[in-house]
Amino acid sequence: MPKLQQFDVKLKTGASGRSTVPRYSINGFLLDFEHTGGGTGPGEEFQALGNPDSFPHTLLLIGPDDGAWDIADISITYHCAGEPPYSLRFAGVTLDGESDLNIWQTRPQPAFDV
Predict the structure, then answer these.
(1) Contact by Cβ (8 Å): 79, 40
(2) Is the dihedral of CA 47, 51, 55, 56 positive or negative?
(3) Kindly report the CA angle at 12 between 28 and 93, in degrees rounded to 5?
(4) Residue 8 — pLDDT band, cuts 50, 70, 90?
(5) CA–CA separation, 102 vs 59, rounded Å?
(6) How far is CA 82 from each of CA 5, 50, 55, 114, rounded to the nearest angstrom?
(7) Please, what's the b/e burial string for 50-71 (b: 16 or more CB within 10 A of its CB; e: otherwise)?
(8) Reduced to 3 states, what is the DSSP secondary structure of residue 113?
(9) Distance (Å, rounded) from C-alpha 114 to C-alpha 109?
(10) Whole-angstrom Cα Rg for the chain
(11) Rounded distance, CA 32 to CA 27, Å?
(12) Which residue blocks in the chain are alpha helix, DSSP H?
């Protein structure tokens, strides 16, 4: 398992936003993003940088305490120690006080035609 030094999150909120700044959890520890920009209201775009500098057994985007948060699009760039960065896109999802989103994905295996 690679050591995750940092990750960049870019997301677009759908019809239902949230009023608070999102947080993330790594290995059960709840953390604030180090740098944030934009917003999480309906139709807004949000960017954030997390610097966990840890081996991620779990990495979660935490849902809002109140109401629902519709996320239309999510892209994440992972920066792992000793490896070039890689980016992934996630499908839309709705989060609430009962749900979080697993955002840890190891580097996809290379694909080639035979």
Answers:
(1) no
(2) negative
(3) 55
(4) very high
(5) 6
(6) 10, 18, 13, 29
(7) bebeeebeebbbbbbeeebbbb
(8) coil
(9) 15
(10) 14
(11) 14
(12) none
- Tell me 14's DSSP state: -
User: Which amino acid, 21?
Assistant: V
Report which residue type is found at 11. L
The count of other CB atoms within 10 Å of the CB of residue 82 is 7
C-alpha–C-alpha distance, residues 82 and 19, integer Å: 37
Q: Which residues pair with 49 in a beta bridge?
A: 8, 35
What pTM value is reported for the model?
0.90
Tally the residues of the chain. 114
Assign residue 43 a region (left: φ > 0; alpha: ψ between -120 and 50; beta: otherwise): left
User: Taking a C-beta distance cutoff of 8 angstroms, is the pair 31, 4 a contact?
Assistant: no
Q: pLDDT tens digits, residue range 35-93?
A: 999 999 999 999 999 999 999 999 999 999 989 999 999 999 999 999 999 999 999 99
